[in-house]
């Protein structure tokens, strides 16, 4: 069974690199969205197995997008992994307060990204 992942990130290079890593290394079916608003629509319509969500985006940031995903009955049970350059201890503590599956810090290792996503899903189901 193919796993489906939705990448929500405003940076085209990040989306493309992440998509390639997940398709090649993890055999994921990858959906992408360029904004929080587009991501909300795609998440509800496509029902991916997991969402990889950038924290810093214009218009609607990742945390606002996360809140909207969690408020929507159609998307509230989809695991969300935050993808962020924010690696400060205070920010990491803030992220642990959220109902998320994991945090992956940019820059990430493209060769282990698929494994990190799978591990987050395993840890979440335990």
Automatic annotation (TrEMBL):
Statement: the UniProt record of this protein carries the keyword DNA repair: no
Domain Response regulatory: 4-121
Keyword Phosphoprotein: yes
Protein name per its UniProtKB record: Response regulator
Organism: Chlorogloeopsis fritschii PCC 6912
Superkingdom per UniProt: Bacteria
SMART domains: REC
Pfam families tied to this protein: Response_reg
Single GO biological process annotation from the record: phosphorelay signal transduction system
Record-listed 4-aspartylphosphate modification sites: 54
Alphabetic keyword roster: Phosphoprotein
CDD domains with a match to the protein in the record: REC_RR468-like (cd17552)
């Amino acid at each position: 069974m193919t796993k489906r992942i939705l990448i929500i990130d405003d940076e085209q290079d990040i989306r493309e690199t992440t998509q390639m890593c997940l398709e090649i290394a993890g055999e994921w079916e990858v959906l992408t969205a360029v904004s929080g608003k587009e991501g909300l629509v795609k998440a509800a319509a496509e029902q991916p197995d997991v969402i990889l969500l950038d924290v810093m985006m214009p218009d609607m940031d990742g945390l606002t997008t996360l809140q909207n995903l969690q408020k929507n009955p159609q998307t509230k049970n989809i695991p969300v992994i935050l993808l962020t350059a924010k690696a400060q201890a205070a920010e990491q503590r803030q992220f642990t307060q959220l109902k998320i599956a994991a945090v992956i810090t940019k820059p990430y290792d493209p060769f282990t990204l698929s494994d990190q996503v799978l591990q987050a899903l395993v840890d979440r189901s335990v």
